[in-house]
Design a protein that fits this description.
single chain; mainly alpha; Endonuclease III, domain 1; 3% strand; globular
């Protein structure tokens, strides 16, 4: 009697039958993010500054909450152009804190402005993209379950420390590792996912 092979743990078929991490199927926004963005290499300053900022907003919240507010965050922070963000004054910040469509957290909002200044300062010494990508780990992750995906690494700890030294805030090692996953520096797609390997393309 023929036995149908079971799917790898923590992977589920999507509407098209392709295997994805189970979290990607919880909402259409997550599905689109998983299929189109998560793990795709990002190497430009603006793109990296945006992802670093969004990861900061996610702290204590779900990623779905951030995705639902992402367009609003982009508008609020001038499309995450550091040169425009750095000029935001207290009146703009207070207006954001009073806006119910925003993620209203003063520390997170102030961190974006402070990190914009730190990003600009880095241009005198290689730049944000070169700094971040210089911490790409040599080790290749190959998780077979969600439990095998680490929350941080030696590289994310070191990069977080370096970013803080360069004037960045709200950049702990767990947050930085999540960013590394999102921008394709590490591939933590579970083995068997149809998106595994996208980070090297």
């Amino acid at each position: 009697m023929e036995t149908r092979a079971s799917n790898p743990p923590d992977l589920q078929p999507g509407p098209d039958g392709k295997l994805r991490s189970a979290w990607a199927l919880a909402d259409p926004l997550l599905l689109d993010y998983y299929d189109q963005e998560w793990g795709v290499p990002v190497r430009d300053e603006q793109g990296l500054f945006e992802r670093l900022s969004l990861e900061g907003f996610q702290a204590g919240l779900s990623w779905l909450t951030v995705l639902r507010r992402r367009d609003r965050l982009r508008t609020a922070f001038h499309n995450f152009v550091p040169d425009k963000v750095v000029g935001m004054d207290e009146d703009e910040i207070e207006a954001l804190l009073a806006d119910p469509t925003m993620i209203r957290n003063r520390r997170k909002i102030n961190a974006v402005v402070q990190n914009a200044a730190a990003t600009i300062k880095l241009r005198d010494n290689a730049g944000l993209a070169e700094l971040i990508w210089s911490y790409r780990p040599e080790q290749e992750f190959a998780p077979r379950t969600a439990a095998e995906v680490p929350s941080q690494s030696a590289e994310s700890i070191a990069l977080a420390k370096e970013l803080k030294k360069r004037g960045f805030t709200f950049v702990g090692p767990t947050l930085i590792f999540a960013m590394m996953e999102a921008i394709g520096m590490v591939d933590t797609h579970i083995v068997g996912s149809y998106r595994r390997g996208i980070s090297s393309k």
